[in-house]
Amino acid sequence: MRVGIGHDTHRLGAGGPLRLGGGDIPHDRHLLGHSDGDVLLHAVIDALLGAAALGDVGQMFPDTDPANRGRDSGEMLQAARDAVAAVGWRIVNIDCIVHAQRPRLLPHRQTMRLRIADLLGVDPERVSLKGKTAEGIGPIGQEQAMAAECAALLAPREEDDSTTPIH
Ligand code: MG
């Protein structure tokens, strides 16, 4: 088995909606970035690539490439998923933390879990997501930024993985 970790931080700007976990959440601020700024999916990508020793999201999607401007992070996550599978690994589980002062993530957690599981092609029970505030202090607490962390576990793909239904 292989374990990987991912971390990302993005600045927040005025105006919503908030793109997080592959979808839009109603909010009065949004994440800034060269791509769509989805800090959670970027942490998941880095955990998967890290577990397979395939580099990181910046290497796979350089911010110097105009094609990556505003790019959908869901599409980037699927590319990372495929890259990991191509070198012989399958995803056992991922565990994520989003650090955000606002909005409360609990009401959106299940939707994000289902979306990430769908993007990865795994059962939702393999995707864990937790939200943490920063107690009002520091750049996250002052709503200047959000951060995310992810741990991913990979196992060797089975011979018949491609023909085995996910459920
Ligand atoms: Mg990022």
Please describe the structure with a list of short key phrases separated by commas or semicolons:
single chain, 167 residues, alpha+beta, 60s Ribosomal Protein L30, Chain: A, two-stranded antiparallel sheet, 5 helices, 7 strands, binds magnesium ion
Structural class designation: alpha+beta
Which hetero ligands occur in this complex?
magnesium ion
> What is the CATH superfamily classification?
2-C-methyl-D-erythritol 2,4-cyclodiphosphate synthase
N→C terminal distance? 21 Å
Instruction: Quickly give the CATH architecture.
Output: 2-Layer Sandwich
Q: Per DSSP, what share of the residues sits in E-state strands of 2 or more residues?
A: 25-35%
Assign the CATH topology: 60s Ribosomal Protein L30, Chain: A
Number of domains: 1
Total beta strand runs = 7
What are the SSEs and their pairings?
Elements: E1 2-14, E2 18-20, E3 23-25, E4 29-31, H1 39-51, H2 57-60, H3 73-86, E5 89-99, H4 106-120, E6 127-132, H5 138-141, E7 145-156
Parallel strand pairs: 5-6
Antiparallel strand pairs: 1-4, 1-7, 2-3, 5-7
This protein binds magnesium ion.
What features would you describe in this structure?
This protein is of the alpha+beta class and about 170 residues long. The chain has a single domain, classed as 60s Ribosomal Protein L30, Chain: A. The chain has five helices and seven strands. The protein has helices at about 40-50, 55-60, 75-85, 105-120, 140; strands at about 1-15, 20, 25, 30, 90-100, 125-130, 145-155. The protein has a five-stranded mixed beta sheet. Strands 2-3 form a two-stranded antiparallel sheet. Strand 2 (about 20) and strand 3 (about 25) form a beta hairpin. Helix 1 (about 40-50) runs parallel beside helix 3. The longest helix is centred in the last third of the chain and has 15 residues, at about 105-120. The protein is globular and about 50 Å long. The two termini are about 20 Å apart. The mean pLDDT is about 95. The structure holds magnesium ion. Magnesium ion (MG) binds near residues 8, 10, 33, 39 and 42.
